[in-house]
Amino acid sequence: MHDKKRAFRHYIISIVIFVAAIFVGIEKSRANTELKIGTYHCPPFIFHQNSQQYDGLSMLLWQRISEIMKVKYSIQNYELDDLLLAAEKGDIDVGVSCISITPDREERVDFSHSFYETHLAIAVKNSGYLDSFISIITNKTLWKALGIFFFVAISVGAFYYFLERKNNDKLYSMPTKRGRLAEAFILGVLFITKGPFNYFEFKTLSARIMTVLIAMFSTVFIASITAILASSLTLEQLRFDVKGVNDLSKLQVGAKQATTASLLLTDHSIAHETYPSMRALLVALDNGDVDAIVADDAVLRYMIKQSKEKEMLADLVVLPYQLEKQNYGLVLVENSPYEEKINRALLQIRETSEWHQILLEYFTEN
After folding, report:
1. Is beta strand 94-96 parallel, antiparallel or unpaired with respect to 34-39?
2. CA angle 100-101-104, nearest 5°?
3. What is the SS3 assignment for 117-131?
4. At residue 25, does pLDDT exceed 60?
5. By the 8 A CB rule, do 69 and 345 touch?
6. Confidence of residue 24 (pLDDT cuts 50, 70, 90)
7. pLDDT tens digits, one per residue of 208-239
8. Helix and strand totals (H; E) in the chain
9. Which neighbouring-strand residues pair with 229?
């Protein structure tokens, strides 16, 4: 009986040791696990210096998280679509950059808690008074409208001249033919702009009948020309009076490809050019290839600020209007075993004064 009890104790102790060894092995395995991190270049959140060096706000955040979790990691750089695909396929464990949390993306991958909140914004090129004046006087629509106006005025003046020149000394009082032709042109301009003259100003019946018909035409004509001129002149200044996404419909607009900005413009049926990088997008705006661009406010302000410090893109400004809200999160594979630990570490870091100081260093404008 005593031997049986001793054997049972040995059996229990063996099981405890075996289970403890398994847990120790699991913990050691986790401690030795090297997480695969995917990034994509998105200043100031990720700077891809070279194949071995990464920096930026998101990378600092991940470094702090990895220290709390006590895990090692390796990094590989991707384009945005490729990074999301790699997370979807499980080729990486965590995606680190400036990736907005959206319902469409959450159908493919999971996200951590948000670590930065921003919004989509509009940037334009701030032209000076001289540039605005030049853009107005070189506007093709303006000159076409003026050409049509003078053509119609000359036609009306010539029509009345041939009807009235022999009978109406009051309207055509100049002694020379050249002077009377000038009077005919002036009559045409005044008729079109001010409306018909007094019915009894004309001597011939044909001129009086045509006065009524042309009067109706001139009202519609002047309204149309005024609308064309107003639209033409206002369009050049519209880029500086954009207050929302719908105001972009009459402008040439650009966005970075495969981003929430491009998706927003598409959802609002706004045709736009897409560019492979933020740098290319900003250069297109500076060169006048587009009138306005849409991108994340934090990224826009940082890149324009850095460019101005290098005496580049000096005329670009971000308009003070918030479009769609954006929340950045770390990309995780679905049902990631690291999600809870990452979220705990992230929330812990967000509450520190160090994190707030880092945000100030990156985004405070001089």
Report:
1. parallel
2. 110
3. EEEEEEEEECCCHHH
4. no
5. yes
6. very low
7. 777 767 776 777 777 787 777 666 655 445 45
8. 13, 11
9. none
> Residue 168 gets which letter from DSSP?
-
User: From the CB of residue 329, how many other CB atoms can be counted at a distance below 10 Å?
Assistant: 23
Q: Which of 201, 199, 294 is nearest to 247 (CA)?
A: 294
Q: Residue 27, Cβ neighbours under 10 Å: how many? A: 10
Q: Quote the percentage of the chain above a pLDDT of 90.
A: 46
In Å, how far are 224, 255, 324 from 118, measured between CA atoms?
44, 17, 9
Amino acid at 324: E
How far is residue 129's CA from residue 124's CA, in Å, rounded to a whole number?
15
Nearest to 244 by CA among 125, 132, 119: 119
* Structural contact between residues 309 and 315, judged by C-beta atoms closer than 8 angstroms: no
More confident call, 52 vs 291: 291
293-322: average pLDDT:
91
Which residues in the chain belong to E strands, given as ranges? 34-39, 47-50, 53-55, 72-77, 94-96, 110-125, 253-256, 273-275, 292-296, 316-318, 325-332
Q: Which residue has the tokens 């853009």?
A: 135
Residue 93: Cβ-neighbour burial (10 angstroms; 0-12, 13-18, 19+): buried
Separation between Cα atoms, residue 276 and residue 287, nearest integer Å: 16
pLDDT band (50, 70, 90) for residue 145: confident
Return the structure tokens found at 261: 């900005």
Distance CA 69, CA 83 (A): 23
pLDDT exceeds cutoff 80 at 322: yes
Q: What percent of the chain has pLDDT over 70?
A: 79
Q: Report the pLDDT value the prediction gives residue 223, as an integer from 0 to 100.
A: 78
Residue 21: is its pLDDT beyond 60?
no
